Amino acid sequence: MKISSSELKISDRIKEMRNRFGMTQVQFSELIGIKTKTYASYESNTFPNNDVLIAIANQGVNLHWLISGQGEMMVDNSQFTQEALDSYEMIRVLDTFNRLVWDESIDPVAKLLFFNSFKDRFDLWNNDRLRKDKLKKSLKSE
Question: Do residues 15 and 59 both lie within one domain?
Answer without folding.
Answer: yes
